[in-house]
Design brief:
The structure holds 2 protein chains of 2 kinds. In chain A, about 15% of the residues lie in helices and about 35% in strands. Chain A is of the alpha+beta class. Chain A has a 6-stranded antiparallel sheet, with no helix packed on it. A 5-stranded antiparallel sheet of chain A has the order 11-15-14-13-12. A 4-stranded antiparallel sheet of chain A has the order 5-6-7-8, with no helix packed on it. In chain A, a hairpin with a 4-residue loop joins β7 (about 75) and β8. The longest helix of chain A is centred in the C-terminal third of the chain and has 25 residues, at about 190-215. In chain B, β2 (about 35-40) and β3 form a beta hairpin. Chain B has a 5-stranded mixed sheet, covered by helices on one side. Classes of the chains: A alpha+beta, B alpha+beta. The interface of A and B includes residues 49 and 83 of A.
């Protein structure tokens, strides 16, 4: 998925509600981000192993995610626990979702994009910041980063938004679309940063459109 | 043997049934933890499968579709009383 393996931000914690599942895309790969009722966040490949239905269409029941198509239920560890059409069947352990390691830290949901390997460090520390919004921009990541300026540390950019401190966690959806998970220095800065982000997006998308037209 | 466990022979006939289909069967069989074998012979897919009846049914239903370039016209299924190779479901 990523050329250099590292934690990838996929959502602001406040946007992943308990009992909900949502789709996300990272480097063209489709994932589902969901949270159990007790609050544990999970990131899986967005395909049920049964017939390929997207898990993100499914529904959370307690600590499990059920596929919308035939109701197969999967526990937070990815194992299938129940197949409604065959209630007496104990699903074998080989029927399981493809789960990524997910972490929640400092207001962001991160995942490790290589299954079967262990992260060598925790996600970047972004303590003390206030979540603003996730901003999806129709422009390549390198163009977005160039427009942001500031200092880049892996997936995290520290810069300014109209003179206010801004931290952006960068999620590359594909070659043409980039999502920034924006955090401000304080709650008081949130409205101004949100307003700034709209103008930023318009500016960057206009530039991307100009580049595409010239090509 | 668990009373719910079946041993069956399934033969799929159709158009374009190829090695991709064999890979498809292997994937499903491993996913469902079935024992047995799959072979491509004379354009037909021949499966020998042992496992819970419900999971064999699921594999059969999946095989009725198969990979997109394959078209299954006929499925023959019969109880198998012969031996089933030990170990992981395999291509022969």
């Amino acid at each position: 998925m990523n050329e250099a393996v590292g934690w990838v931000p996929v959502a602001l914690s406040v946007d992943v509600l308990a009992g909900a599942a949502s789709p996300a895309v990272v480097d063209g790969a489709e994932i589902v981000v969901w949270r159990t009722v007790a609050g544990r966040v999970q990131v899986w490949v967005d395909r049920c192993p049964h017939r390929g239905m997207r898990f993100s269409f499914g529904f959370v029941r307690g600590e499990e995610l059920a596929c919308l198509y035939h109701g197969w239920q999967f526990a937070a560890d990815g194992g299938c626990t129940r197949i409604p059409a065959h209630p007496d069947l104990t699903p074998p352990a080989t029927i399981c979702s493809d789960a990524y390691e997910a972490r929640e830290a400092d207001g962001l949901v991160w995942f490790w994009p290589v299954r079967g390997t262990s992260p060598d460090a925790p996600p970047p520390s972004l303590a003390g910041l206030s979540p603003v919004r996730s901003l999806t921009i129709r422009a390549p990541a390198d163009m977005v980063l160039a427009a942001l300026g500031g200092t880049v540390d892996g997936p995290v950019v520290r810069t300014e938004a109209g003179g206010l401190p801004l931290v952006a966690a960068v999620q590359r959806k594909n070659d043409c679309i980039t999502t920034l998970h924006l955090l401000a220095a304080s709650e008081a800065d949130q409205p101004a940063v949100a307003t700034w982000s709209e103008a930023f997006r318009r500016r960057v998308e206009a530039a991307a459109s100009d580049v595409a037209s010239a090509a | 043997m668990d009373a719910d466990v079946e041993v069956v022979r399934i033969v799929l006939a159709g158009r374009g049934l190829d090695e991709d289909f064999v890979d498809f069967v292997l994937d499903r069989a491993h996913r469902f933890s079935l024992r047995g074998t799959v072979a491509l012979e004379g354009g037909e897919i021949r499966i020998l499968a042992e496992g819970p009846a419900a999971l064999i049914d699921m594999m059969e239903v999946a095989c009725m579709l198969g990979p997109v370039q394959c078209l299954v016209d006929d499925v023959r299924r019969e109880t198998w009383t012969g031996p089933v190779p030990a170990g992981r479901f395999a291509r022969i």
